[in-house]
Design brief:
Layout: E1 2-8, E2 11-17, H1 41-49, E3 66-69, E4 72-75, H2 111-118, H3 120-129, H4 143-146, H5 149-163
Antiparallel strand pairs: 1-2, 3-4
GO molecular function, one term: structural constituent of ribosome
Subcellular location: Mitochondrion
Protein name: EOG090X0IZW
């Protein structure tokens, strides 16, 4: 605290700078927050039974898993978060991906691209080896050639989701 006396024509002025606020008198709870882990055991016990309105119970951003009725806490199973973690055994990539990696944006797949991704290689090999019948059908169809349109579309969507 800094104070300075100033005298002008016999009158004395006092100029002061205070670094504390005077809200709530001597109990300025807003300036010095006492969170859950701070304070004595007696203070924590008092806060648990009768919380002081100026000292909020700080939850550190954690959502509650129930609600309070009077002094009783009711646990709700649906409010407990369920963490789903995939099984990454045999996964080839490392768990860290750099933020400097450029974004990969895949445009919508056209029917020509779908045909090229699924069928072209097998048809070309069958043509070179002479395994195409009189009606231009493969004499030894692969599992890809036996797929229906819906199965092929689902397979391509799975491949595209792995790329993106």
């Amino acid at each position: 605290m800094e104070s300075r006396l100033l005298s002008v024509f016999g009158k004395q002025f006092v100029r002061g700078i205070s670094t504390t606020s005077s809200a709530c008198g001597k109990r300025n709870f807003k300036k010095f927050p006492i969170f859950n882990k701070r304070g004595t055991k007696i203070f924590k016990a008092q806060q648990a039974k009768h919380p002081h309105p100026d000292v909020p119970i700080y939850d550190y951003g954690v959502r509650p898993t129930g609600y309070k009725i009077g002094n009783k806490y009711v646990q709700v199973d649906e409010m407990i978060p369920e963490i789903v973690v995939p099984d990454l055994t045999g996964f080839k990539l490392k768990p860290y991906v750099s933020y400097r990696v450029s974004d990969i944006v895949a445009p919508p797949m056209t029917p020509e691209e779908l045909f090229g991704a699924v069928y072209v290689r097998k048809i070309t090999e069958d043509f070179k080896n002479g395994k195409i019948g009189p009606d231009n059908q493969s004499l030894e169809p692969s599992p890809e050639e036996k797929m229906t349109a819906e199965e092929a579309r689902a397979k391509v969507q799975a491949i595209r989701s792995d790329i993106v």
